[in-house]
Amino acid sequence: MNECSAPNASKYAQIIEAAVTEFQEKGFAAASMDRISARAEVSKRTLYKYFESKDNLFRSIVVELSSRFAEVLELRYEKGRDIREQLTELAWAEGRILMLPDVIAMARMVVSETLRNPELAAAAQGKLDKTKTFITMLKEAAEDGQLRIDDPERAGQEFIGLIKARAFWPLMFSGGALSEPEMAETIENSVQMIMSRYGIDPDTGAA
Predict the structure, then answer these.
(1) Grouped pLDDT means (10 residues each) for the chain, 207 residues
(2) HSE-up of 154 (CA within 13 Å, CB side)?
(3) How far apart are CA 10 and CA 13, in angstroms?
(4) Residue 117, by phi and psi: left (phi above 0), alpha (psi -120 to 50) or beta?
């Protein structure tokens, strides 16, 4: 359950969408629960029934956003299976989520609040960081002999950074989201760069 009591799915979604817009436009400190209820077209009583405070509402948005990336966090390395296929699947798990405009909108809100209120946003970072999943897959692939990596942490950061360089960070300023062909190209290029840097020739065993 999210941080509200037994929410009606439709009203809950309306409030979350309205709050994202309000926080983006006004910032957390200046955001108004009255305006959020008006934007969501729900009564203040309904709003406070679901979310007892602005802090609670902000945390619920972070929880909602982090839940979208559950597929990424659940992916695990499969011993012996072609690493290029596995890296492509991992990249697509991230990429499919980044193609959703509402995810980008929520992410923009959280990123903007990081600049305005680092203390409030600090807790959000842990829930939203998927880098560990990328690091773990690359580390286990190296241990399995499919990649040659001295620093899996750096390699994981590089991999997710390649994807976000086109599919996330530019959209924080422009809005929107990549199309499926654009995402496919981004993922193919990102996987190819990782394989070029860390891949092993199956015939010679050389990197």
Answers:
(1) 57 92 86 95 94 90 84 90 97 93 85 74 71 96 97 97 94 85 98 97 62
(2) 6
(3) 5
(4) beta
Distances (CA, A) of 164 to 50, 98, 157, 161, 187: 33, 9, 10, 5, 10
Quickly tell me which residue has 């600090």 as its tokens.
Answer: 122
| The two three-digit tokens of residue 22, written as one number | 């309000």
Question: In this structure, are residues 33 and 44 in contact, taking their beta carbons and an 8 Å threshold?
Answer: yes
Please name each of the domains of the chain with its CATH number.
9-64 (1.10.10.60), 69-198 (1.10.357.10)
